[in-house]
Structure formats: C-alpha cells, structure tokens
C-alpha cells in the first residue's frame, strides 16, 4: 500500500522556477515523491497521515554541497590556525589515527546535526566512505559521497585512487538511489597534474563526476602561479578536468577569467562562507558568480572548520557578506540567498528532482515553526527564513517521503548512543 502524507494549512515556499508561494497551501506526498502541491490538492485519500501546517512554513530540504562529516570528531579541536598549519600540523596527524568505525560514528553525529537543521541532501568528501554510506543509509539522509585521495603517480597514490574508484562502483549514481558516489581528488596542491590526468584516464569509461577543493586560499593560488604559471582553475582546464562534471569547493580567490572558465564548463561551485571566514581565507566573489550565471550552491565545509553544520547560517552569511563587501544592500537578495541553499545546490549537482517543491520532485522537505518570537510578525516569510531563522526552528524533516525528525525526536538514529560513542573516540583521537 502506498504511503501518503498530507501537509495542510502551511505557507509553502516552493523555490520552483516561478518562486511560487502558497499561503496557505497543501502538499500531498505519495511514497517518495510529491504528488501535488497548491492552495488545495483536491480529494485526499483517507489513509493519508495529516500534518497540520498552521503557523508553519514548508521549504525544500536544504542542500549542503560540501562537507567532511566525520570531522565532527575534531570539532573545537584545532581552532584559530591558518589553513595549511591547521591541516598539516593538526588535522592530518589526528586523521592518521582514524579507524573505519570512528568515521561511522563521526558521520552519524553530523547526520544528527544536519537532519535536525533541515538539511536533506549533502555532499561529503572523506576517508573510509563505506562507513559514511552505512550511516547515511541508516539515517535516511540523501547523500553524494566521495572518497578522498591524495598523492601522485607513486604506488600509494595509485592505490588510493583505485580504492576511491572501487567505492564509486559500489555506490552508483542512479535516480532510484538515495546514496551515491563520485570521485574525490583532494586538491591541485595535493594531487599533481600528471596524477589528475591518470585519474581521468582510469575513469574514462565511466565518466565519474569529481569533487575537488579549488582556489580556497591565496597561498594555494600563489603557489600554483609560481609552479605552473596558471591559476588552479586555469590549470584544471588545461589538463582536461572540466571535461567531466565537477563540483569545485570554495573558489574564493578566482579571477574574472577563472569565473568565465567555470561558467563555460558548467562547473558546480560550493560556496562555504562560514568556513572561509573562520580559516581567514577571505570571501568568494559570489555576486560576480551569480551575475555570470554560475552554478553555485552552499556548503558548510566540515564541522572542524566551521564549526557547525547550520545551513541557515550559511544562507544568511552568503547574503550579508556580499552586501557588506559591495556596500550595496540590494546585492544578493533574501530570495537569491535561499535559492543558493536549495535549488542552487541541486543545480550545482546537476540534479533536477530535489531543491524544489513541485509535482514529481523528491519528497524532501523541512517544516519550520514560525510561532517563535524572532519569526514574528509574518511580514515576509522568505526574509524571515534568511535573516531571522536558524536550525533550531526546524520542527519536521522529511526525506523521500519518510519522516526522519519530528518535534525533537529522531526517528532513524539513536542520539544517546551516538553521543556516547563520539565522546570516547574523540578523546582517543586528541590524546
């Protein structure tokens, strides 16, 4: 028998092509898809579960397109360091102690946090990704996972590439799969051009998409200019990386010519304002990217460099930073900022069935409780979401038509068990 959910009497912000808002409106979910949405959805089956949306706002589930979820184990472990010091002196040595089970529990903690905050799809890059996939399957979260690899054409680098290819083969990207895999070469400064060419050759038959850090810091760009006489973006174009579908994380220090390359090659850009600020890497030229029709979405980056996974915070920062830097309050409107965290992320991932509320889309939704002092009055629901709301205002989260979180209760994950395991493992890793 089909599973049906009716959400009624809610404000529905569709984020579809017309940015349609129903106030009030209804959504009928059947199994894993949105069957209908509108002011009224017609006759409702008697076996439907009814959610009263009075005083609530329904939005597409938020999409976090760059993360290192299991790094929740290192939250508040190494703060206030420059990026390369943070990586080389703090994070890399700690990560050398990780076990597969550590990654499972660290990812589980991050999934708790993301689901609690209305995120329904996320993109990960880390080690032991079969364990993260296991956690995602259990949680009900939608995920695109990339096993990271670092190195050159030496044996270790080639073996790590083969491991990543094996992971991608075990988790193919199909429309009926909630959890899928892509490849994760770490960055141009940790993967040589020749090695990246090997990556392309080794995966030529499958054309597997790629997820890579790109132009995150000024130091990285300067190093590339000194070594290759090209920016990291121009270098990646030269070696043929952008002939694949690519998701590029950060893109903070990019030139106008770099942006043109990214746009022409339909590279998805993961803008991570919170992490970029915390690591002192600056602010990406988001306004130029939007004006150039770049495929831009938002990411939190990992919980060790942010230090939270609150997508509402990223949405707000994305808008406010551009207003301040450009000294123009009209730059990046509330609607544009919310789009970055929903359909913008879907577009960057080349997925057209998430990030919007419309008939036939995946039933991935977040219901926000607007009966809070900081969300009153309801003058403009979109502005309230962007400038006033936070992860703690999310009341219910649905992925693929299944309720994962409802009014303080996690329905797929054991919160106390996760807390216990993470506490023990974090203590060992930082010892």
List the keywords.
single chain; 431 residues; alpha/beta; Urease, subunit C, domain 1; TIM Barrel; 2 domains; nine-stranded mixed β-sheet; 15 helices; 17 strands; 23% strand; globular
Describe the structure.
The model has no long low-confidence stretch (mean pLDDT 96). Strands 1, 2, 3, 4, 5, 14, 15, 16 and 17 form a nine-stranded mixed beta sheet that branches. The protein has a four-stranded parallel beta sheet with strand order 6-7-8-9. A four-stranded parallel beta sheet has the order 10-11-12-13. It starts with a strand and ends with a helix. It has two domains: 4-61 and 363-410, Roll (Urease, subunit C, domain 1), CATH 2.30.40.10; 70-348, Alpha-Beta Barrel (TIM Barrel), CATH 3.20.20. It is an alpha/beta fold and 431 residues long. The chain is built from 15 helices and 17 strands.
């Amino acid at each position: 028998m089909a599973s049906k959910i009716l959400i009624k009497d809610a404000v529905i912000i569709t984020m579809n092509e017309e940015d349609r808002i129903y106030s009030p409106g209804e959504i009928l979910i059947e199994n894993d898809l949105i069957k209908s949405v509108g002011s009224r959805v017609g006759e409702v089956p008697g076996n439907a579960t009814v959610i009263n949306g009075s005083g609530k706002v329904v939005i597409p589930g938020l999409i976090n397109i760059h993360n290192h979820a299991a790094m929740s184990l290192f939250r508040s472990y190494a703060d206030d360091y420059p990026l390369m010091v943070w990586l080389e002196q703090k994070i890399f040595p700690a990560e050398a102690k990780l076990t597969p089970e550590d990654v499972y529990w660290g990812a589980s903690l991050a999934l708790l946090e993301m689901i609690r905050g209305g995120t329904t799809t996320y993109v990960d890059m880390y080690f032991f990704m079969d364990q993260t996939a296991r956690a995602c399957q259990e949680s009900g979260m939608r995920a695109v996972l990339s096993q990271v690899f670092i190195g050159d054409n030496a044996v270790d680098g080639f073996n790590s590439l083969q491991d990543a290819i094996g992971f991608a083969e075990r988790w193919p990207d199909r429309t009926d799969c909630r959890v899928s895999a892509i490849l994760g070469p770490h960055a141009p400064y940790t993967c040589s051009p020749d090695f990246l060419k090997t990556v392309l050759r080794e995966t030529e038959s499958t054309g597997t998409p790629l997820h890579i850090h790109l132009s995150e810091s000024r130091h990285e760009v300067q190093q590339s200019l000194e070594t290759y006489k090209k920016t990291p973006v121009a270098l990646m174009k030269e070696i043929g990386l952008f002939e694949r579908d690519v998701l590029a994380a950060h893109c903070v220090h990019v030139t106008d010519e770099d942006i043109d390359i990214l746009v022409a090659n339909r590279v998805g850009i993961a803008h991570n304002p919170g992490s970029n600020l915390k690591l002192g890497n600056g602010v990406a030229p988001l306004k130029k990217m939007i004006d150039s029709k770049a495929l831009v979405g938002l990411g939190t980056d990992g919980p060790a460099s942010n230090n939270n996974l609150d997508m509402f915070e990223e949405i707000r920062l994305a808008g406010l930073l551009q207003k301040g830097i450009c000294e123009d309050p009209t730059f990046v409107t509330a609607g544009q900022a919310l789009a970055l965290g929903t359909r913008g992320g879907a577009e960057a991932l080349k997925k057209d069935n998430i990030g919007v509320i419309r008939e036939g889309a995946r039933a991935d939704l977040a219901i926000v409780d607007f009966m809070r002092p900081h969300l009153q009055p309801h003058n403009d629901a979109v502005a309230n979401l962007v400038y006033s709301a936070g992860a703690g205002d999310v009341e219910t989260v649905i992925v693929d038509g299944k309720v994962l979180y409802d009014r303080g209760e996690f329905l797929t994950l054991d919160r106390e068990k996760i807390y216990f395991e993470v506490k023990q493992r974090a203590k060992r890793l930082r010892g």
